[in-house]
Amino acid sequence: MIFLFDGTLPGLLSAVFEWFERKPGFTTIQLANTFQPDAFTEKFEVLTNHEKADRVWEGLQKKLKRDWLRKFYCSYLSEIPDAYQHLFQFSIYIFANAPGAENNFGNEHVIALSKFAKSVEREKHRMEAFIRFQKTSDEMFYTSIDPDFNVLPLISNHFKNRYADQQWVIYDLKRKYGLHYNLNTVEEITVDFTDGVNKKQPTAALMDEKEGLYTLLWKDYFKSANIVSRKNTKLHLQHVPKRYWKYLTEKQL
Questions:
Q1: Which of 12, 24, 66, 232 is the most buried (most CB within 10 A)?
Q2: Pairing assessment for the beta strands 134-135 and 141-145 based on DSSP bridges
Q3: Mind listing the pLDDT tens digit for each residue in 112-133?
Q4: Contact criterion met (CB below 8 Å) for 143 and 133
């Protein structure tokens, strides 16, 4: 049996509810929009039902501690296709066993979720460390990112607390949505970029007139603080992998 769902967290939780209601035996779960049908496998299309999803989530909250609820959520945010299957089977496993089952690292789904969550948390911390804002002419601080995982929901509070006195936008180019802080709340936004607009690097006409000076000063400071004789490229790459250099002002030519 294959359960097809819409890719949302409520959709996945609805699939767990449907499994317990139907008890179809071993079941795999796949995204409906990428499913390739065949003539030999029975499929069931799961309709996302928020009431059913809430009941499953409330059940997981009773069975799991906060750290495992976060691992569950982070695993979902990984967007890795295999993660959906592990989340689905992990949920069934947790409900079918006594409290504490999540500590059984002999279970493949427990191990998988731990690994997925660790990777997502690492990406979250790197985004928090490496994101650099640019000030636009309308007093907005803007940056674009394209992380491996969907970490925007995880970094919202960090930037709201750290930059509480300025309006900012963090836009995920890969997933085509972003976060906007308006000095009071953080809201999810989408932007319809005009054709030809550089989404990664706003044009000079859109930037604050002093932004270029700030960038130059920061590069000069970084260059003067750098001690060439103590350069350790291997260690530097361990802490700041090359794929993150595009976010760092000091790495731009």
A1: 12
A2: antiparallel
A3: 999 999 999 999 999 998 888 8
A4: yes
Distance in angstroms (rounded) separating the CA atoms of residues 176 and 72 = 24
Cα–Cα nearest to 246, from 119, 127, 163: 127
Strand-pairing partners, residue 135, are 141
CA 21 to chain centre: 31
Distance from C-alpha of 79 to C-alpha of 132, rounded to nearest angstrom: 25
CA distance 110 to 89: 10
Kindly state the DSSP code that residue 194 receives in the 8-state scheme: P
Pinpoint the alpha helices (H) of the chain.
9-22, 50-63, 66-77, 81-96, 108-130, 152-162, 211-225, 233-239
Q: Provide the b/e sequence for 79-104 (b: ≥16 CB within 10 Å).
A: bbeebbbbbbbbbbbbeeeeeebbee
* pLDDT tens for each residue of 213-232: 445 444 443 455 565 666 65
User: Using CA atoms, how far apart are residues 244 and 112, in angstroms rounded to an integer?
Assistant: 26
Q: Estimate the crossing angle of helix 66-77 against helix 9-22, to 10 degrees.
A: 110
Q: Residues in the chain, how many?
A: 253
Distance of alpha carbon 149 from alpha carbon 174, whole angstroms: 10
User: How far, in Å, CA of 37 to CA of 43, rounded?
Assistant: 8
Nearest to 189 by CA among 156, 157, 149: 156
The predicted pLDDT at position 90 comes to: 98
Here the tokens at position 242 are: 């090359």
Name 217's Cβ contacts closer than 8 Å, sequence gap at least 6: none
Q: What is the pTM of this model?
A: 0.80
DSSP 94: H
